[in-house]
């Protein structure tokens, strides 16, 4: 009998993932990761595992999570970058830990409740978008080791979120529908900028004129495309269009100045090795956007230049750009620099 190790969070997605494997007559074991103090839903994860009659491993990963996710998160904000901790967590914490546990218990596969798919074709494995376009989470998975795709199962990629809810309800699984949130799990109810104090003050500069029009209380308070919390009165809406750590400056201007076509990406991870040094593909520069056509030029093994066909709103250093060929995730990396016309 094939054995699968499933990452269990106490939420509905991971619970249904385990349930689907049990229905397929596979041997299933769960694992709950303790990533920070007072983790939510640990008791619910235990209750769900008991309900499904599967063994639940509890793995304390707080030390690695702090090193690879929490500390870099705050350090990058201090440098005027906007990090994505979920991508770091998947790359450095969750998937390596799942692989390790699967090997330890002699499991054939490991799985998560992400809405994405793995396609095995001609002895090759590909990461695909989930069929639920509104819920597709392939963006967050581009950074994982591509060798993991050989053992990775993502059953929820074949379902919509509504279907998953219905399965849980019909099976009476004691799990929780996670609240859709853009907040960072380890911050709990706090904002990141409430923790990063104090910081040095600096100028807020109008990009089109070069004039200093205000003062900020730290570049960590800002991200490209931001409109709120600027503290400046203006005859037109102002948006953050650039952050310059070298001079501790924040540049603002009209919304149109936040649209850009060209930027650079490094820390690349390819799930499909490029066959040429330049190619056209679809690119996402944030999770909640539709992929847009772009031309990618490989500069070296860890740096590419991306040029959108049409300007896109707020490519943001520190965020990830993910490359797609239709449904297939080619890879991605971290946006390091944008090319602006001012």
From TrEMBL:
Tagged with keyword Disulfide bond: yes
InterPro entries referenced in this protein's UniProt entry, alphabetically: MnmA-like, MnmA-like_C, MnmA-like_central, MnmA-like_central_sf, Rossmann-like_a/b/a_fold
Recorded catalytic activity of this chain's protein: S-sulfanyl-L-cysteinyl-[protein] + uridine(34) in tRNA + AH2 + ATP = 2-thiouridine(34) in tRNA + L-cysteinyl-[protein] + A + AMP + diphosphate + H(+)
Binding site for ATP: 7-14, 33, 113
PANTHER family, A to Z: MITOCHONDRIAL TRNA-SPECIFIC 2-THIOURIDYLASE 1 (PTHR11933:SF5), TRNA 5-METHYLAMINOMETHYL-2-THIOURIDYLATE -METHYLTRANSFERASE (PTHR11933)
Annotated tRNA-specific 2-thiouridylase MnmA-like C-terminal domain residues: 261-335
Pfam family, one: tRNA_Me_trans_M
Protein name: tRNA-specific 2-thiouridylase MnmA
């Amino acid at each position: 009998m094939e054995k699968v190790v499933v990452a269990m969070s106490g939420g509905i997605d991971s619970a249904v993932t385990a349930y689907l494997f049990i229905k397929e007559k596979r041997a299933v074991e769960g694992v709950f990761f303790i990533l920070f103090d007072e983790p939510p839903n640990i008791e619910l994860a235990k209750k769900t595992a008991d309900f499904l009659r599967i063994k639940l491993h509890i793995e304390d990963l707080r030390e690695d999570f702090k090193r690879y996710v929490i500390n870099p998160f705050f350090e990058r904000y201090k440098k005027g970058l906007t990090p994505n901790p979920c991508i770091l967590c998947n790359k450095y914490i969750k998937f390596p830990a799942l692989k390790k546990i699967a090997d330890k218990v002699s499991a054939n596969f490991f799985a998560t409740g992400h809405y994405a798919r793995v396609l095995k074709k001609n002895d090759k494995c590909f990461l695909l978008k989930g069929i639920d376009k509104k819920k597709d989470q392939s963006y967050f998975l581009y950074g994982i080791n591509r060798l993991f795709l050989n053992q990775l199962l993502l059953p929820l990629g074949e379902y919509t979120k509504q279907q998953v809810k219905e399965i849980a309800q019909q099976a009476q699984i004691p799990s929780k529908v996670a609240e859709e949130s853009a907040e960072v799990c380890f911050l709990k109810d706090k904002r990141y900028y409430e923790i990063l104090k104090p910081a040095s003050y600096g100028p807020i500069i109008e990009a089109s004129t070069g004039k200093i029009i205000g003062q900020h209380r730290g570049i960590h308070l800002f991200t490209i495309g931001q409109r709120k919390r600027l503290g400046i009165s203006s005859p037109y809406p102002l948006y953050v269009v650039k952050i310059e750590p070298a001079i501790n400056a924040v540049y603002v201007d009209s919304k149109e100045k936040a649209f850009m076509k060209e930027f650079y990406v490094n820390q690349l991870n390819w799930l499909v090795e490029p066959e040429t040094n330049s190619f056209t593909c679809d690119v996402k520069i944030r999770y909640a956007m539709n992929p847009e056509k772009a031309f990618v030029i490989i500069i070296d093994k860890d740096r590419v230049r991306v040029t959108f066909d049409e300007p896109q709103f707020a490519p943001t250093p520190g965020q990830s750009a993910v490359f797609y060929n239709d449904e297939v995730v080619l890879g991605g990396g971290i946006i390091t620099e944008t090319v602006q016309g001012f």
